[in-house]
Design goal:
The complex is a heterodimer. Chain A is mainly α. Chain A is 46% helix and 5% strand. Chain A has seven helices and two strands, in the order H-H-H-H-H-E-H-E-H. By secondary structure, chain B is mostly helical. Classes of the chains: A mainly alpha, B mainly alpha.
Chain lengths: 221, 121
């Protein structure tokens, strides 16, 4: 009985000693955290860092470097870079960031998620190429039907004085000549569709809401 | 018969020491305190360099020195130009930050001018 008592008291002292040790290591003198990573930062600092990445991207337009910088605030528990940026945007809205900064963060989110392509250069809609049917085609056909088997001489393009080589107006021997028409109507300026375009599968298989949309429009039964 | 001497409760002291050792081991090694929500001051020096690079490049993008100074002061207070220059020199050895050495150097120069003009330290 005495031995059992001593063993019990031994265990109790171990527990007490363990409690004292934990209290000391957790509260009195915890380990100093001086080697933290960027993803350990407080959410508002992480939001500011994401804003910095967005500002840098806004100038450099270097998607790869933006991804590399975002990787540094990507914690092991974060599912993706997109989630980090989304959280940063939400935090920025709550903190009242100005609209210009928010716009940059939105743009960064679009770039890294690939949801929308942001063009880096504008396309001139008037720079269109119009195919014109010329008499070359009939001449070509007549040459083919000619009984003369002598090889036809290909006209050598005369060099211009500008030093810039002229483009082949018929590179694929289609019989059509490619010319530019700056007065052509831009193809992007399409008239609006007279009716909404529905994606309706024909047949027995109905998509959700497909047939009902047509019925609503045309006044179905 | 000799009377039995009462033994000192050394087993109690032994138990206490063993428990203390176990507690310290668990508290410092096995389950150390997890720090979240730190400030840039607590960043590892490599990450502080990354932070400095980000601040410098962001300054070159928007030319907002007030904001850049505020960001730098989150990493060190008071802001030490000498420390920043030392960090900048270490960038030459860092493959990730080496391409931005000149930009960060110019940023630090402009930051120093800003601090001299505004009297900030």
């Amino acid at each position: 009985m005495g031995r059992i008592n001593r063993f019990i008291w031994f265990l109790i002292m171990i527990i007490i000693g363990g409690g004292v040790g934990l209290y000391y290591s957790w509260y009195v003198k915890p380990a100093e955290f001086v080697d933290a990573a960027l993803y350990n930062m407080r959410p508002d600092y992480k939001t500011d860092y994401v804003l910095m990445v967005a500002e840098i991207y806004d100038q450099e337009h270097d998607r790869f470097q933006a991804l590399v910088r975002l990787d540094k605030v990507l914690a092991p528990s974060d599912p993706s870079r997109e989630s980090v940026v989304e959280a940063a945007i939400e935090n920025a809205q709550n903190l009242g960031y100005n609209p210009v900064d928010l716009q940059k963060m939105y743009r960064l989110q679009e770039v890294i998620s690939g949801e929308r392509i942001i063009p880096t250069e504008t396309i001139d809609p008037t720079a269109l190429y119009v195919f014109e049917q010329t008499s070359t085609a009939s001449a070509g056909q007549s040459r083919q039907s000619s009984s003369d088997d002598s090889p036809q001489e290909t006209p050598t393009p005369t060099p211009n004085n500008s030093g810039v080589p002229e483009a082949d107006s018929d590179p694929f021997n289609t019989g059509m000549q490619i010319t530019t028409d700056p007065n052509a109507t831009p193809m992007l300026d399409l008239p609006p569709a007279p009716f909404p375009i529905f994606n309706n599968n024909s047949g027995s298989g109905n998509t959700a809401g497909g047939n009902s949309s047509l019925d609503d429009y045309f006044g179905g039964d | 018969m000799f009377p039995k001497r009462k033994q000192a409760p050394l087993y109690l002291l032994t138990g206490l020491i063993i428990g203390l050792a176990i507690g310290l081991l668990v508290g410092y090694r096995i389950f150390p305190v997890q720090f979240f929500d730190i400030t840039p001051v607590s960043l590892h020096e490599d990450f502080q360099q990354d932070y400095l690079t980000a601040v410098g490049l962001a300054y070159h993008a928007d030319k907002d020195m007030g904001r850049a100074y505020s960001r730098i002061s989150q990493m060190m207070s008071p802001v030490s130009i000498d420390t920043l220059r030392t960090m900048n020199l270490r960038m030459e050895e860092d493959a990730d930050n080496k391409p931005y050495f000149e930009q960060i150097r110019s940023f630090i120069n402009e930051l120093q001018a800003y601090m001299n003009n505004t009297g900030k330290r």
